[in-house]
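Exercise: predict the fold of this chain.
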Amino acid sequence: MVHGRVLFFKPTALKKFLHIVLSITTAGLLVLSCKHPLPEPPSGTGGTGGSGGTGGTGGGTTPAPCSPDTAYFAQQVLPILISNCALSGCHDGASAQDGVVLMSYNSVMITGDVRPGSPGNSELYEMITESDPRERMPLGRTPLTAAQVNTIGTWIRQGARNNSCVNATCDSSNVTFSGSVKPILANKCGGCHGGAAPSGGINLSTHAGVQAKVADGRLWGAINHSTGFQPMPRGGAKLSDCELAQFRKWISAGAPNN
């Protein structure tokens, strides 16, 4: 009834009206019946090598044991560059000769113009293998050894990754100068503290030179990053716990030339 009047529908109109109402009602029921509960958010306990999903508890991966068939940036390439190239007046952060800084993965890749997979097209590799000694890097210093050049070339050839590893073969029980201490010093310190003009007058390329720094306490203080000492290797990572244990044992035994 509208304003006192009763509305009447013709049979055909009533049938059409009921059909529309039924269609609307059915559609509404279908919408409601297709709704599903919202899925619970992930707990965040996924991730490779840990529980590093969003909102999780941890993350990251543990470096794999070092493989003799792989060149590693953190353990091999960067120490070579820091010890031989990232020096004051050359390619450290402050000097940045020719705009080249060789103190981190990003700076090596960008300013060293490293082309993953192609040593021959990488400026870094070209400069350390230059045949003209007036152009070869490190300029005015002892050239890199064949083994060091090969390590950098292999690293680039294998993709120039920012990779790292754990030295599972590090032995802190059977320690000698020739087999344990000297290789570490040669790899991580020799570029600065070797050759004809060692930095600070400290020559760590001979047993006598190393023993002198053991005697005055500066070797252990520097590599252990002890208070009051300049942390070494300069600009590089601290020696691993196993490497420090090797030095400690060798020094405690009297720093023999064995």
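Check your answer against the key: Confidence is low (pLDDT under 50) at residues 1-59.
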